[in-house]
């Protein structure tokens, strides 16, 4: 029987120990990387949650601002409709109303203007330019400018300056236009200064000046005693 050679097993045992140590080093290296990845995952999950929370808050803020904007827009629409309607009814008759329809087009609000008339129960809805000639457009334009000035959040002081505010309005309604402008001065505490070729409208003002060109010279007359 041959003698047992321990050196052969010693070499194998050393080889196994060497592979074990190598595997252990590799294991701890990989474990360190995994722990690092877990920490990164935890940090990213926290960041993701904060981001989702921020998105939720921003969405709520967006919805709130949209509601506020819609409310403010609705309030402005109602105020403008009321003022323009009162103006039309005062100057023309009581069966005419001014309406504003607001819709979303490509994410932006757009407004369409309409004149609604009621003739013996028949409701007629038309665009301002199609309603009873240019006089209605003149009055709507005049009333909208005044309404926008008074309904805006801008603190705009000073007089209202108008250029031919009733150019296409017939003389049958000029008295009502003048009375409306006077009511505007009382209601909003603003002076109205206008330029007009309509003699009837100008002479209804508190002070009026007429400029006539005679032989190349401007002659100024009026009801101001200082002239």
How would you describe what is shown here?
It is a single chain. The chain has 227 residues and is of the alpha+beta class. The protein has a domain at 72-222: Rossmann fold. Helices cover 55% and strands 21% of the residues. It is built from four helices and seven strands. It has helices spanning 6-91, 134-151, 174-188, 199-203; strands at 96-105, 108-119, 122-126, 160-163, 192-195, 209-214, 217-222. The strands form three sheets. Strands 1-2-3 form a three-stranded antiparallel β-sheet. The N and C termini lie far apart (150 Å). The model has no long low-confidence stretch (mean pLDDT 82).
Which features does this protein show?
single chain; about 230 residues; alpha+beta; Rossmann fold; three-stranded antiparallel β-sheet; two-stranded parallel sheet; 7 strands
What order do the helices and strands come in, and which of them pair?
Layout: H1 6-91, E1 96-105, E2 108-119, E3 122-126, H2 134-151, E4 160-163, H3 174-188, E5 192-195, H4 199-203, E6 209-214, E7 217-222
Parallel strand pairs: 4-5
Antiparallel strand pairs: 1-2, 2-3, 6-7
Helix pairs in contact: 1-2
């Amino acid at each position: 029987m041959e003698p047992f050679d321990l050196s052969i097993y010693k070499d194998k045992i050393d080889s196994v120990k060497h592979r074990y140590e190598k595997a252990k080093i590799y294991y701890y290296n990989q474990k360190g990387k995994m722990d690092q990845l877990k920490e990164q995952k935890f940090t990213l999950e926290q960041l993701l949650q904060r981001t989702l929370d921020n998105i939720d808050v921003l969405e709520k803020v967006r919805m709130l601002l949209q509601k506020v904007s819609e409310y403010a827009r609705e309030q402005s629409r109602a105020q403008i409709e009321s003022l323009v309607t009162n103006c039309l009814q005062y100057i023309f008759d009581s069966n005419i109303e001014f309406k504003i329809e607001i819709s979303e087009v490509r994410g932006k609000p757009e407004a369409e203007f309409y004149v609604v008339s009621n003739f013996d129960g028949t409701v007629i809805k038309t665009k301002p330019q199609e309603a009873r000639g240019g006089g209605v457009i003149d009055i709507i334009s005049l009333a909208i400018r005044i309404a926008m000035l008074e309904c805006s959040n801008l603190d705009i002081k000073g007089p209202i300056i108008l250029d031919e505010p009733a150019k296409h309005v017939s003389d049958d309604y000029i008295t009502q236009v003048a009375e409306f402008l006077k009511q505007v001065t009382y209601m909003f505490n603003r002076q109205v200064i206008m330029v007009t070729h309509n003699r009837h409208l100008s002479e209804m003002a508190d002070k009026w000046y007429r400029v006539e060109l005679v032989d190349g010279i401007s002659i100024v007359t009026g009801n101001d005693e200082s002239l």
